[in-house]
Amino acid sequence: MDINFYLPDFYTNAKLICFMADLQQATPECFYDNVRIASAYGCFPGTIWNGGRVVLGSCKKPEMVQIIDQLNSRGIAVRFTFTNPLIEEKHLNDTFCNFCLELADNKGNEVLVNSPILEDYIRKNYPKYTLISSTTKCLDKLEDIKAEMEKDYAIVVIDSAMNNTDTLFSLDHKDRMELIVDHFCEDNCPRRRAHYIVQGKAQLEFSDPDWKPCMNIAREFFQIMNNRSFISTELLYGKYKDAGFRHFKLDGRSYPPRRLIDSFLYYLVKPEWRSKMATIIWREVYNT
Questions:
Q1: What DSSP string runs through 137-201?
Q2: Which segments within 21-175 are labelled E, that is strand?
Q3: Residue ranges per domain, the chain?
Q4: What is the pLDDT of residue 215?
């Protein structure tokens, strides 16, 4: 049974993610068994449908095509984070967002969804995409999660508040649940839903969020290991794998390379090889 990982952020980190995939191909003995980089999630800058983070700016078609091709040629899906909770009917005809979906409309890519309006639009106009229910829905009640699992989603990304609880292990459909293993947000953060609203508004208005950044995302990888929601490799490759979970998401959109490398190496690479792999990555990807 493959263990599928979903890595951040395909626009900023395409080179790193592709290099990790190539390293695994060249040196499989250094990686955990049956590990697969299944997709890279994120968005191209300036997509108003984007949620979860504010990603402003612009990019050109050749760069977008190159990123999609580089990932897809390695068997890695591009997963659009089209989870802005404030989408209205008037936003559906956005030229750039539709252009992004058209470029990657090849049956191999995915979309994270939150807004029912946008979800219905994508199902109707881009049926080749795999649709995934986003953690930005903040479903942390048992009955809501059960109901979501019965809907027509390939995967449901579970709120990290459920991690390491008996309730999570009692649920059915574990093979369709995706768990955020290293969430930098604090446990049971009461501000998450409000943050997604603020970020969605800023994305629609091409502006910075009207709030002070959450200090939790400034922490280092080793610091979040104390979170109750943190899933260690011992648990992941033991208890979780044995129970039938096989989809795991790494946090990290907008995070600095050091933090990304720490998490990528921790979850994908065997302990005795991590130091050597870190040296190779810094040299080959970041020229340091």
A1: G---SHHHHHHHHTSS-SEEEEPGGGTT-HHHHH-S-GGGEEEETT--SPTT-TTHHHHHHHHHH
A2: 35-42, 77-82, 110-113, 130-133, 155-158
A3: 3-10+34-253
A4: 67
Q: What is the pLDDT of residues 64-123, one digit of tens each?
A: 999 999 999 999 999 999 999 999 999 999 999 999 999 999 999 999 999 999 999 999
Fold (topology level) of 3-10+34-253: TIM Barrel (3.20.20)
Higher pLDDT, 219 or 283: 283
Please state which of the ranges 13-22, 104-113, 217-226, 269-278 shows the lowest mean pLDDT: 217-226
What phi, psi does 5 have (nearest 5°)?
-115, 145
Q: Rounded to an integer, what distance in angstroms lies between the CA atom of residue 152 and that of residue 217? A: 32
Is the four-CA dihedral 91, 95, 99, 105 of positive or negative sign? positive
What DSSP line would sit under 199-263, residue for residue? HHHHHHHTS--SSPPPGGGGS-HHHHTTSTT---HHHIIIIIHHHT--EEE---TT--HHHHHHH
Nearest to 200 by CA among 139, 136, 252: 136
C-alpha separations of 88 from 32, 94, 145, 146 in Å: 43, 11, 25, 27
Residue 140: exposure state from Cβ atoms within 10 A (0-12, 13-18, ≥19): middle
Query: What is the pTM for the complete model shown?
Result: 0.96
**Between 191 and 172, residue with greater pLDDT:** 172
Q: How many CB atoms lie within 10 A of CB 110?
A: 22
